[in-house]
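Inverse folding, one chain.
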């Protein structure tokens, strides 16, 4: 079984790949694998030069309350 701390780490990695996807991959045109690799490496270099920490903006209770409202809305309960 994976502990809660590991899931948070996985979520952060997933979010980082989301940034990569949104900021580079969806907007870019890559004519070859080599060009794609070069662009990804440059994006990573820029990210590492000015890293931005992942900060939770809501408490666990706020997130769970929001999720409960959403589930209630979509289930018609």
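Residues assigned per position:
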């Amino acid at each position: 079984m994976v502990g809660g701390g590991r899931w948070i780490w996985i979520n952060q990695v997933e979010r980082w790949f989301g940034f990569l996807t949104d900021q580079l991959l969806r907007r870019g045109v890559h004519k070859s694998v080599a060009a794609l690799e070069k662009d990804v490496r440059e994006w990573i270099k820029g990210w590492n030069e000015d890293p931005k920490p992942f900060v939770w903006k809501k408490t666990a209770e706020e997130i769970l309350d929001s999720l409960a409202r959403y589930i209630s809305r979509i289930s018609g309960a």
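The CA atoms of residues 44 and 68 lie 37 Å apart. Helices lie at 4-25, 33-49, 60-75.
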